[in-house]
């Protein structure tokens, strides 16, 4: 196991370097095609060459390659790598704020939001999938299939606006006026926007919205896996030996059925970290997604590179953890 983990950690190096180079090239190409983004900071005012040059130098955009369309800016790429991995310097944004501070402030919000979404989709999705798989052809099975199709067909931005405007605003206002429920619920959970006074409660609904689409996929994946494994020879043998039904389902059937589900949840964790931009925008959560959106609109390559580098590392680490969990779930899997 130790050798396997070391080998996977070494694989992080080319993957991370490749992802950073791809993003570096795309951001550089954007500047080459649209011009120096530092000019936009002056608005309608026309800066002197000295002012523009000083600001461009401070923002790390003074390399001549950024004026040549199609130039991959290899030298600038290695300069950025040196600053990131040797000096832990991700640069600054257009307001002269270090990118590390931006990430440090925004990451906890997104992390808590994603954890709520993962717990929601794992608990509810796996439970629904198991019950549907064990009652194939029954009412609950059809209910899970229909409800998951409805969830998958609704875009997250539509679901977010519907939940915020109908439930959090309309229903929430009535509950707040009644004053019969605790404040953490009426002003926290039912708040249409993030409330610093209720840092966890006001993230519950956005987390449920973020995990709703993945919940449907988790439920259907669990159901299919249960249906496949419940007919397996080892399950029939366990039943023939007289084992209790709970042990047959919980130990022999469910553990093997969870392998594809765990794989999906691991991949989805990284996807939710980067894909929370819509949900964070709807509910006013000051997280990573909102910072990426702002940096993209204002063409701040340092912020985009810093945040995406972090997301790549999170994605790789989570997938490593998922691979290690395979051996826990299935004793037949060994990493020698």
TrEMBL record:
Subcellular location: Cell membrane
UniProt record, GO biological process: transmembrane transport
Recorded family membership: Belongs to the binding-protein-dependent transport system permease family.
Coiled coil: none
GO cellular component term, pick one: plasma membrane
Keyword line: Cell membrane, Membrane, Transmembrane, Transmembrane helix, Transport
Native species: Nocardioides donggukensis
Segments passing through the bilayer: 12-33, 113-134, 146-167, 200-221, 303-329
UniProt name for this protein: ABC transporter permease
Chief localisation class: membrane
Domain named ABC transmembrane type-1: residues: 107-326
CDD domains: TM_PBP2
Matching Pfam families: BPD_transp_1 (PF00528)
SUPFAM superfamilies: MetI-like (SSF161098)
Record's bilayer topology term: Multi-pass membrane protein
